[in-house]
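call fold target=CarboxypepD_reg-like domain-containing protein
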Amino acid sequence: MLNTVNYTTKLLRWFTFGVAMRLGLLFLFFFVSVDVFAQEKSLTGIVFDKNSKERIAQVNVLNTATGKSVYVNLKAEFAIDARIGDKLIFTKLNYRPDTVTVQNYTALAVYIQPLSIQLKEVTIHDSLATPEQMLEATKRNYPNIYGSIANTDLLSIGADGGGAGLSIDGLYNMFSRSGRNAAHLRENIQQDYYQNVIDYRFNKTLVGRITGLKDAQLADFMQKYRPGYYTVITASDYEFITYIKTNLRRYLRRPKLYTLPPLVK
């Protein structure tokens, strides 16, 4: 009888220990998981030209850990989700790529180096004004949304470049109704700028010369195989011409592809 009691006691102890171990591992896994997911936060910053110290737009920010990327806005500011230890790669046409490892969530001031030797590009454009010139003209036409208050930075960088913080005026402008309207209009202007950049390089003169297409057929091809903004700003002349020729072959094989059906009357 005593042996039976001892055996039962040992069995209960083993069972209790096993349950406790399983519960402990479960809680450990839960808290580790919560901690890992909680570490991803939004990291903000501003990108500058390393030589001129001026802000620069059209910079792509890629988080290699997540594969997600964003472009800086017109004021060279960005916000991207990242964890401590993630690597961010900053790329821009005619600039050296720069890699930054996330150490903390203090706003970043990133300086990227322009290429020391830049080959002169031979390009053909339909418009006499560059997208940058058109953007500056638009800013002059909308002084209220690009005025001193509207241009107040959400991020403020110290004079020595060593510290960054939130601007009170920038926060007020972001949450006020007039500030939100101005921000919405600036976003539309920025999107128009991206489209102007595409139009400036992917234009009828250049595409017609490469493809030999004309009139309605040329317009149809350009509408169906219009490149994206990232392709336009990163592709070399050779890569861009190859892009057009490759899509021309696709177009000639199936010219009706991507054609919308006629509207039902």
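return ok
Residues 126-201 form one domain. The chain has three domains: 41-112, 126-201, 203-258.
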